[in-house]
Specification:
Layout (H helix, E strand, L loop, with lengths): L1 E11 L4 E10 L2 E6 L8 E4 L4 E4 L1 E6 L12 H10 L2 E6 L10 H14 L3 E4 L1 E2 L12 H6 L4 E3 L8 H13 L3 E4 L12 E2 L2 H6 L3 E2 L1 H18 L2 E4 L5 H12 L4 E5 L1 H5 L21 H12 L5 E2 L8 H4 L16 H10 L6 H16 L14 E11 L18 E11 L2 E5 H5 L1
Parallel strand pairs: 1-4, 1-5, 6-7, 7-8, 9-10, 10-11, 11-14, 12-13, 14-15, 15-16
Antiparallel strand pairs: 1-2, 2-3, 5-17, 17-18, 18-19
Helix pairs in contact: 4-6, 6-7, 7-9
């Protein structure tokens, strides 16, 4: 089977090239990239001068499958990913049962192969049941194809146990994805500890809750030599510590979520749980630092922390509702609107942070558009203006604080292994 993508601006972070070109794909692999390709093809996709980027890779997704599929499942999560331009997603282990053994890793891998064209990489938990008491079968999960460990949603508070896990992960060539939260300092906090939480009468979460564990995890990574990836960084000091760790040669990378670089706690609209996420929305100083960290390539990745919940769960007060918002279907537009359009990032940096860098961190052969590479491609129109409407999401989750916001830049098509799995026109028909 052949696919011809016509008239795109091809961005290849592999060599940082940008050029107007056509792309010919044969049997799922990029065969030719040239100014004008006139060869006949089974399918033609007209890019219309839009960017052709390597398919986006989301290093932080909650698919809720197995066990919590009323919130999301692999099929709906995959559909949301394709709608948002993501061709590979990394699924966190806080499922039911927890992904702490080879059997759950195999379940997700096998189910994903049958229900979605999106590549799904299942993360294994650091400890059994994510209870922080006993290590999971890390080596067994690695043999089942698991390439990452995380206790996402919490930190492993036992530093000795966590260090042992890091040592095994380093031996198995796995990356540790760290949720940094000192639970002893949370005290029931639900929003950032600042004037907004005080005005709403809500308990606050200080920056130190994140920063203390960021420091600890960096030091443990330095000692064990493991590849450490810091999830959803939200504070000014997290950026400072990542910068310093890199200067000292620690194998650390870090991600920032669109909600953390595009919104502050001042924008929280009353007792509305769609503004409740962990870590919370922070202050303008933190947002400025995160944007600078992304601009200066201190922070490597833009990831969503896609966390779908039911409407009933999110209809509760902020005090009682679960943490988390959806993000797969808004990430690209928020990145372009808040970072690229204002000149904080180049469009090449956007492609690097949403595809090339995640691929390098995960050790997978993706994230580039070049001859011989898998044809995972996202067509992104930088001129399209639209209004975020959760009712048009493919995800089961509609929980977003961005509803009604006008954004610039839209995913027009998503290609995975040479197959068009989403095209914007098909949604409108």
């Amino acid at each position: 089977m052949t696919l011809l993508i016509k008239n795109g601006i091809v961005l290849n972070p592999g060599d940082r090239s940008e050029k107007h070109a056509d792309i010919l794909v044969r049997d799922g692999v990029i065969e030719r990239i040239d100014t004008t390709i006139r060869e006949e093809a089974d399918t033609v996709l007209y890019a219309g001068g839009a960017y052709c980027m390597p398919g986006f890779i989301d290093m932080h997704v909650h698919l809720r499958d197995p066990g919590l599929t009323y919130k999301e499942d692999i099929a709906t999560g995959g559909a949301a990913a394709a709608h948002g331009g993501f061709t590979t997603i990394v699924a966190m282990p806080n499922t039911k049962p927890v992904a702490d053994c080879p059997e759950v890793i195999e379940y997700v891998k096998n189910k994903a192969a049958g229900v979605t064209p999106v590549h799904v990489l299942q993360v294994g938990s650091v400890t059994k049941g994510m209870l922080g008491e006993e290590l999971s079968d890390i080596r067994g999960m690695a043999q089942a194809g698991c390439i990452c460990l995380s206790e996402d949603g919490k930190s492993v508070m036992n530093s000795d146990l966590y260090r042992d896990a890091m040592r095994i992960a380093a031996e198995e060539n796995m990356t540790v994805l760290a949720h940094c939260e000192d639970i002893s300092l949370v005290h029931g906090g639900v929003l950032n500890m600042d004037e907004k939480s005080a005005s709403l009468g809500m308990p606050g979460i200080s920056n130190a809750v994140e920063d203390i564990i960021v420091a600890r995890d960096i030091l443990l990574a330095k000692e064990t030599g493991v590849r450490l990836h810091l999830c959803h960084c939200s504070t000014e000091d997290s950026v400072k510590m990542v910068r310093l760790a890199k200067e000292e040669g620690v194998h650390v990378t870090a991600e920032v979520c669109p909600h953390h670089f595009s919104m502050t706690s001042d924008e929280i609209d009353g007792d509305n749980a769609n503004y409740k996420m962990n870590p919370p929305l922070r202050t303008e100083a933190d947002v400025t630092a995160l944007r600078r960290g992304l601009s200066e390539d201190v922070m490597d990745v833009i990831a969503t922390d896609h966390a779908p919940h039911s409407a009933e769960e999110k209809a509760q007060s902020i005090r009682k509702a679960p943490f988390g918002i959806v993000g797969l279907e808004t990430a690209a537009a928020l990145t372009y609107t808040h970072l690229v359009k204002p000149g904080l990032l180049t469009v090449m940096q956007m492609a690097e942070k949403m595809s090339y860098n995640p691929a390098r961190i995960l050790g997978i052969k993706k994230g580039v558009i070049e001859v011989g590479a898998p044809a995972d491609i996202t067509v992104f129109d930088p001129e399209c203006e639209w209004v975020i409407d959760p009712e048009k999401f493919f995800s089961k989750g509609k929980n977003t604080p961005f509803a009604g916001q006008k954004v610039i830049g839209k995913v027009m098509a998503t290609v995975i292994d040479g197959e068009i799995v989403f095209r914007e026109s098909s949604e409108e028909e």
